[in-house]
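Data availability (excerpt). The following record was deposited with the supplementary files.
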Amino acid sequence: MTLPVTPEYITSLRPNEVFVFGSNLAGMHGGGAARIAFEQFGAEWGVGVGPTGQCYAIPTMQGGVETIRPYVDDFIRYAQQHPEQLFLVTRIGCGIAGFTDEQIAPLFRAAYATTNVALPEGWRQIK
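Predicted structure:
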């Protein structure tokens, strides 16, 4: 089975695609992928968790890596409940939030078996 990979740059979405980005709990989408989500894909200002516009927000700015895990787990359950959609996960937490791919990628291990979740290039190789 060939698993999908998130493109490095996402400039448009098909109707069934969802832009998954790192946010803050307050939903202030001022920079990075959050700003793209707000300006291009309908993410609502003030919505920092879950589905918003043609996006899904995962908060990454509230503390350490372990504070992100419950939100990732919720996202994976949501994606499994919406198999008709393809979720394009950006490198959440690896920009403004300051985490590394090696810190964030393991949070998505359960998504590896989900065929409708695309992950960034290289995340599947991080153990």
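Summary of structural features: The chain has a mean pLDDT of 95.
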